């Protein structure tokens, strides 16, 4: 599609979701089944209000069934499903209404707390609605009052699923058919936040009251190698620590323990809850301020401000025997900021580590929160 947004001063092309592909393929297959007319281009109105006109490929027509595919186009978004064929097979059914299911390469839900019930195909609500509404339109135009059975499949879905969050979420056998607007916006922050929401909601639905958060792979490695619990115990927040805390509050968790590299978590002391560098850095400025409050001499404070990494700044603090007191002050402030973010409605704690120096500091309640997470 030739629609664009401007992001970060760059012109980025929009794409369309797996849900739009599934709905378009199903609409084309239904049209060919009910009218007997071949359809190599199909129009689709997305929930976002953007109209699509998509090529239909690999058409197979049988007496009571038609299958075809639409190629997924993610635009300038680095989506693992870009260039994947999404198939729909539509057949007449004796049962009334429109029945939608997933075939090969579409994941199947095995755990509670996801949008679809256990046992159902991982085809989310908006794509299901898009498929149903478009097929109802075709039925009206073709003057057909019988039932239709729709099977969505993705031949490459099982391989692609290993590059997604599906295995962590308990969706097995393939990818999910997703999309709330029908349109893919490149590098969408909301898509990542939605993924965090899904995983947290699943934990909550399975009875968890305490949750472990970590920004990324450094934290996951530390949790596995140093703390000795399975890395997938933690929900990955990426840079969206503030949003993850908001979701924990919204979903009603009792406690949250955040474990992260000091290079990320130091920013929380300055109130920076999206830790991406494009929103600011201030790591050295924050460390320098707390080191100065702990008694570090001005000349050494200046050296910290020149450091490129937190590990280098920690070296200076260790050399002057001020690391412990500096980190104690810093961690206290991080705890205060986290508690303020959740309005005191969720017990929050944190552990800070460094790849060079290991565990650096923790809030007073960190061990108790970790125990609660492990016992669940």
Descriptive account of the structure:
By secondary structure, the chain is an alpha/beta fold. The chain folds into two domains: 4-184, CbiD-like (2-Layer Sandwich); 189-375, no CATH class. The chain has 13 helices and 20 strands. The strands form seven sheets. It has a five-stranded mixed β-sheet with strand order 6-7-8-12-9, covered by helices on one side. It has a five-stranded mixed β-sheet with strand order 17-16-18-19-20, sandwiched between helices. The chain has a two-stranded antiparallel ribbon with strand order 1-2.
In short:
The chain is an alpha/beta fold and 376 residues long.
Quick tags:
376 residues, alpha/beta, CbiD-like, 5-stranded mixed beta sheet
Oligomeric state of the chains?
single chain
* Number of continuous helical runs: 13
The averaged pLDDT comes out at 93
Task: Name the structural class.
Answer: alpha/beta
Number of strands: 20
Helical content band: 25-40%
Q: Nearest-angstrom radius of gyration?
A: 25 Å
Estimate the global geometry from the Cα principal axes: elongated
- Given as residue ranges, the uncertain stretches (5+ residues, pLDDT < 50) are none
Spatial ordering of strands, largest sheet: 6-7-8-12-9
Strand content: 15-25%
Through-space gap between termini: 47 Å
Largest sheet data: 5 strands, mixed
